[in-house]
Design a protein that fits this description.
Blueprint lengths: L1 H11 L15 H20 L6 E2 L2 E2 H23 L3 H31 L4 H6 L1 H11 L27 H16 L8 H10 L15 H15 L8 H13 L4 H21 L14 H18 L5 H33 L85
Antiparallel strand pairs: 1-2
Helix pairs in contact: 2-3, 2-12, 2-13, 3-7, 3-9, 3-11, 4-6, 4-7, 4-12, 4-13, 7-9, 8-9, 9-11, 10-11, 12-13
Length: about 425
């Protein structure tokens, strides 16, 4: 009885077009941009020594990172289903994450560091910790500090607290690849079972139990994979989305919202991506700047706090937003977009368009513009200051195209017919 009811509702309220196909016009890029900006705003409160804004008991940055991982899990599961080739998959993931990250790290070490270190320039450049920061973070082995940089900030010494989500993001990519290689993504029950098992792992903000302080990121990613695989068997309705938001927003304790947010935020995000207002797409017509904004928002905000240590969160936001946005635009046009050209060249014969040639799936109808991020991730970032132990603490929870846990410190809508999904992979948009 329940199964037949769900099937009827799924047919009545599909995610894509009435024939079950998803559309290549959606709001994913706009949602990533909004999530990146939410992370920027949320961290501005951290830099000002103020409490982060919340929805219920969940910080705004927390919700934004959940959105990144939900989008990433859904789109990358779709990408694998279209082109299930391991080495091309891994190469594309690397091209999405690392070029922009490495440019950021070089600029951080050679421009931001010398400008804000309290050490003489010679000592700063001679320090092994300076180059350790560059090389370790380049391979996602998190380093938090540069010698003397931001040492006296209200939130001291953390050079880029957003990088910690990139490690879990890559871990999630490998997990999806493992499921794909063993055929788990072709069996509708495998990914949901994995998601349920992950949902049963308690969140450990201390980081004493490896990975459990980051488990909620993997929970969101796994739920999003399951939502993609079961998309034709799930009703997608604004009323359900509203109920899910209310459930985690009104939950009374810390643990309950975490558990409810894992299925709720990915579902709501994906529903808005396909069923939300088309006006959202106007936010991302020029490109997908979300990953760059996510990467640069923390160091720019810390720089503002270093120059104006008594600045309020509103002032930090107002001053850091235009600078971060400009850096995000530059990152997209000079680094990320060229990398997407390389990603396209990796496509195998199976990924060639088989239906309607045109732009790959992306949040806009213009050329591909996506960042895995969850975040790419994008761009995700630490969620609140209380999630990170103070600098110098013995244990630092490891900090991501994003998240929390690392840097040790983080009414129904009308149904619209979607454009049929072209067979080309959404990779280029990711």
């Amino acid at each position: 009885m329940l199964g037949s009811t769900l099937s009827a509702l799924a047919r009545a309220y599909p995610l894509g077009a009435d024939d079950g196909r998803l559309g290549r016009v959606n709001n994913f890029d706009a949602l990533r941009l909004l999530a990146a900006l939410a992370v920027l705003v949320s961290h501005a409160f951290v830099f000002a020594g103020e409490e982060e804004p919340r929805v219920g008991t969940l910080e705004l940055g927390f919700i934004a990172v959940y959105m990144f991982f939900g989008i990433s899990g859904f789109l990358i599961a779709q990408s694998w289903s279209i082109e299930p080739h391991l080495w091309r998959y891994l190469a594309k993931r690397a091209l999405r994450i690392f070029p922009a990250l490495i440019v950021l790290l070089i600029l951080t070490v050679l421009v931001l560091g010398p400008a804000f270190t309290t050490l003489p320039l010679r000592d700063y450049l001679a320090s092994g910790d300076t180059w350790k920061y560059l090389f370790n973070n380049s391979v996602l082995a998190l380093e938090h500090e540069l010698p003397g940089v931001f040492a006296t900030n209200p939130y001291p010494a953390e050079v880029n607290g957003s990088l910690w989500t990139l490690g879990p993001e890559m871990f999630a990519y490998f997990g999806l690849a493992a499921l794909g290689v063993i055929g788990g993504l072709r069996r509708k029950w495998v990914a949901p079972i994995v998601a349920v098992l992950l949902l049963g792992v308690p969140h450990d903000p201390t980081g004493l139990i490896p990975w459990t302080h980051q488990i909620w990121l993997l929970q969101a990613f796994a739920v999003a994979i399951s939502l993609y695989i079961l998309r034709d068997h799930i009703p997608w309705h604004g009323g359900i989305a509203l109920l899910l938001v209310g459930a985690f927003a009104l939950a009374p304790s810390e643990g309950t919202p975490l558990l409810l947010a894992a299925p709720a935020i990915p579902y709501v995000t994906i529903w808005v991506a396909y069923r939300g207002p088309a006006v959202l797409r106007r936010l991302a017509t020029r490109g997908d700047f979300s990953y760059g904004i996510y990467l640069y928002a923390w160091p720019v905000g810390q720089a503002v706090a270093a120059i104006l240590p008594d600045a309020t969160a509103l002032v930090v936001t107002a001053l850091s937003l235009p600078v971060t946005f400009a850096l995000g635009i530059a990152s997209w046009n000079l680094v990320e977009k060229p990398a997407l050209v390389l990603k396209k060249s990796l496509r195998g014969r199976s990924a060639e368009p088989r239906v309607d040639p045109g732009p790959p799936m992306s949040g806009t109808s213009s050329p591909p513009t996506s960042a895995d991020l969850s975040v790419d991730a994008n761009p995700g970032a630490p969620i609140s200051a209380k999630d990170f132990p103070p600098v110098g603490a013995e244990e630092r929870v490891d900090p991501g195209s994003t998240a929390t846990g690392t840097p040790t410190r983080v009414a129904s809508t009308p149904r619209a017919r979607a454009v049929p999904l072209q067979a080309e992979s959404p990779e280029a948009a990711q």
